[in-house]
Amino acid sequence: MPHLPRPLALLGLLAISCSGPQPAAPASTPTPPPALTLSAPQSDAERVEDLWINPVHAWATSSLGVLRFSRPAGPFERLKGSPIGGHIVVDDLGVPYIGLDDGVAWMDETGAWRRLSDGALRGGVRALAPQPGGGVWVALSRGLGRIEGGALRSVAPTLRVTDALRATDGALWLATADEGLLRVRGAQAERLGPEHGLCGPGARALAEGAGRVVALCGADGLSIFSEAGGRAYAVKGLSGALKRAQPWGTGVILEVQGGAWLRLRPGPSEGAVIAQPQPAPAPKPAPQPAQQPTSQPTSQPAPQPASQPAPQPTGDLRPRPAPIKLAPATPLGASPFTPPVAQPSAVHFAADASIWYADPGRGLVVVEGARTRRLSARSLRPSERTLLLVDPEGRPLMVVDGAALKREGGVWRPWRISEGRVLSLGLSGTGEVLALTEHEGRLQLWQGLKAWRKLIDRPMFGLDGPARCGQLHATADGAYYAALFWLNEQQKLRGEGLLRLSAEGLQIWEGGLDEPEPGTRALPDSWVNRVLIDRGGALWVATNAGLMRLRGEDSRVFDENDFMDSDAILDIAEDAHGVIWLATLEGLGRLEGDRWVSAAAAGLKGRVDALASAQGILWASAGGALFCQGASGWRRVIEGLGEVRAIRPGHGVLWILSREGLRRFDAPPQCD
Questions:
Q1: What is the mean pLDDT of residues 601-610?
Q2: pLDDT by residue (tens digit) across 377-391?
Q3: How many Å apart are CA 538 and CA 212, to the nearest integer?
Q4: Burial, 178: exposed, middle or buried (Cβ in 10 Å; 0-12, 13-18, 19+)?
Q5: What whole-number distance in Å separates Cα of residue 315 and Cα of residue 291?
Q6: pLDDT value of residue 24
Q7: d(Cα 670, Cα 602) in Å, to the nearest integer?
C-alpha cells in the first residue's frame, strides 16, 4: 500500500497558550496577524477504543459512548445511554455487546442498555465472541461462560482464556494461557498445541481473515492456521514485541510495539526481519479437565435468538486431540507496511477485505481496495448540556447524559460518584471537586476526589429525570448555585432559572417575575448561560435578557438600558485585574465599575460564544475562531472551531467544548 500523507484536520485543533501582562483596556488591532497553522489536530469526541465491522454498520466504542456508522455513506450516531469505552462485538441479531472492566453491557430491542456485573463478571472481561444465532461467549479473568436470557452461564470455570474469536465458518477459537488453542465446533472441542503448529504452550491473541486464523505467542511467536494445517514461526529482528497480527491477502500484517508495521508473505526478506518456521515437537496427550457444575444464572432480560443455535457445551470443555496436520515449512519474508494512520488505537480487517483504522482523535480511516477515505464523527452532537470542568491540578472532568467521566491515561472513563444520576460538577473554595447528583427523589451534594463525602441530602421537590444543570459554583456562605434546565417531551431544553442549594433548603430563582417567591431573587430571564463567583465573593448570573450581580443583599441588573451591545449574555469571565468581561450576541465588552465598554477588536464585534481567563490571559471565541489577549491586544490564533460552548485552560493544556465535540490543545505556542 502506498504511503498516504496524513490529511488536514476534520476537527482541527492546535494547542495554544499566551503569556505576558494583560492590560485593563486592550489595544485595537485593525489588521491582526494571520492565524497560526493548524497541526496535530485531535478531538476527544473521536477517540475510538475498539471496532466491530459487519456488512451493515461500523461500530466503535469511544470516549462519549458507542458510535454507529451506517455503511457505506453514514452518518455517525451516538447511542444514548451506552457505556464508555470497552471491547465490542455484535452478534448475529445485530445486538452490540460491550466487555467492561466489571461486566458486560448490551442494547435490548427497545434501544435501552442493560448491564450484567454479577459474580465472575466483576473480575473483568478479557474477550467476547458472538454465538451462532445470538448472544456472546465471555472470556473472564478466570473461566469461560456465555450470556443467555440475561444470565451468565459458566461453561469452563477453570479455563484460563486470554482471547476468543468466532471464525467465519462458525467455529469458536479460544486462546488459553497454558493449554494451547481450543477450536469448538458444536458441542465438540479440539485442542491445538505446539505439535499442531502453535507457537507455544499457550497463546495471547487471535485474529482471523481470508480463511486463516493467526495466533500470537510470547514476544515474537506467530502461528497461522488454515485448512491446510498450522505452522509456527519465530519473527526475528523485531524492534519490539508483537502487538497485533491480522491476515491480509496472501500475507499477514504485523504491528510491533513502538510503531513499526510489517507485512509477512512467502518469499525473500527485504531486511533483517524474517519469520522462520519452527520444528514441531512430538505429540503429547491432551489434558482432560474434570467435570465442573455450571453456575446458576442471574436474572436480567437479554435479546433472544431468532432461531435455535447450534448445540453448545454445557459443562467443562472436554478437548480431544486434533489430528496432526502441519503445513509445509515455508519461510516468510518481511517488508515494511505503511498504514494511513501512524498509531491507530484499533484496527479491524473486515470479511469484505476492507481495513478499518481508528485514528486517535481524528475519526476512522477505511481502506477498500485502492480507495482510502476518512469517516469523521464531526456530525456527532454531544449532549445539549455536556459539562466540562478542569480541576486545579489540570485534570479534565466531564458530565455527559447524567454520567461523570474523568480522563486517565489519555482515555475518558466512567467515574462512580453515587448510585444516582450526575447533574453537575464544580469546585469548592479549597479546590476540591463538587458533584451534584439525584437519586430516588433526593438531591445530594458530594465533595472529594478519591473519597466522596456527602455534604447535603435533601428532597428534590419535582426535580426528576428531565432536569439538567450547568456547572456548580460555591460561595463563601455555604450556598451552591447552578443554571437549571428542563428537557421537555420534544427533547428540547427549556431554561428554568438558577438552582440554589444550601443546608437550609432548595430554591429556584426564576426570570421575569414581578413578585418572586419569598427568599428567592428574580432574574432578568430564566435561561441562564453562565454563573460566576468573582474574587470579592459577588455572584454574577448571565442570562438571555441581561446580567444580574448580587453582592451581599445588594442586587443590580445590567441590560439594554445600560447601553450594552446586547443583553443576551452568553458567557462571563473575570480577568487578572478583576475586570468583568462579557460575551454577548452582538460583541465583546467589559464593565468598568457599573459602566459598559465595548471591545473594539476585529473579529469580536459579532456573536462571541465563549470566554475564559487563566494565568493572566483572556480567551474568547467568535465566528469559529479562537482569540487571545496578550500585551499587544487581541490576536486570532485558531480557525475552524465551529460554535464553541466552553473554553477551559489548565496546566498548559487548553480544552474546548464545541458542537462538534471536545478538543484539546497540547504544548501551546505563545500568544504574542
A1: 88
A2: 654 444 456 788 988
A3: 69
A4: exposed
A5: 7
A6: 34
A7: 20
Residues 6 or more apart in contact with residue 92 via CB below 8 angstroms: 130, 131, 132, 133, 134, 305
On whether the CB atoms of residues 126 and 141 are closer than 8 A, the answer is: yes
What's the Cα-to-Cα distance from 413 to each of 100, 372, 634, rounded to whole Å?
11, 31, 37
The 10 Å CB-count burial string (b at 16+, else e) for 327-346 is beeeebbbeebebbbeebbb
d(CA 618, CA 672): 13
* 151-198 pLDDT per residue, tens: 888 888 888 899 999 998 889 999 999 889 999 887 788 899 998 989
Are 539 and 574 a contacting pair, CB within 8 Å? no
Backbone phi, then psi, for 123, in 5-degree steps? -80, -5
Q: How far is CA 263 from the centre of its chain?
A: 31
Q: What backbone torsions phi and psi does residue 165 show, to the nearest 5 degrees?
A: -145, 130
Q: How far is CA 167 from the centre of its chain?
A: 28
Three-state SS for 609?
A: strand
Query: How far is residue 284's CA from residue 201's CA, in Å, rounded to a whole number?
Result: 12
What's the grid cell of residue 489? 417531551
The pLDDT tens digits for 259-308 are: 888 888 876 655 555 666 666 555 455 444 434 333 444 334 444 444 44
In whole angstroms, what is the distance from residue 27 CA to residue 145 CA? 68
C-alpha cell at 30: 485593525
pLDDT attached to residue 382 = 46
Q: How far apart are CA 59 and CA 440, in angstroms?
A: 34
**What residues contact 34, with CB distance under 8 A and at least 6 apart?**
none
> Looking at the whole model, is its pTM more than 0.70?
no
Query: Cα-Cα-Cα-Cα dihedral of 212, 216, 220, 222, to 10°?
Result: -20
At residue 153's C-alpha, the angle toward residues 148 and 159, to 5°, is 130
Task: Give the three cell numbers for residue 131.
Answer: 454465538
Q: Residue 415 and residue 428: Cα distance in Å, rounded?
A: 19
**Grid coordinates of 161:** 482464556
- For residues 478 and 501, give the distance between their C-alpha atoms in angstroms, rounded to a whole number: 9
Rounded Cα gap, residues 574 and 582, in angstroms: 9
Please give the pLDDT value at position 327.
61
- The rounded distance, in Å, linking the Cα atoms of 598 and 608 is 12
Q: How large is the C-alpha radius of gyration of the chain? A: 29
Strand order from edge to edge, sheet including 539-543: 528-533, 539-543, 546-551, 554-558
Residue appearing with cell numbers 524474517: 274
DSSP 191-202: EE-GGGT-SSSS
Residues above pLDDT 70, as percent of the chain: 80
Place of cell 481473515: 209
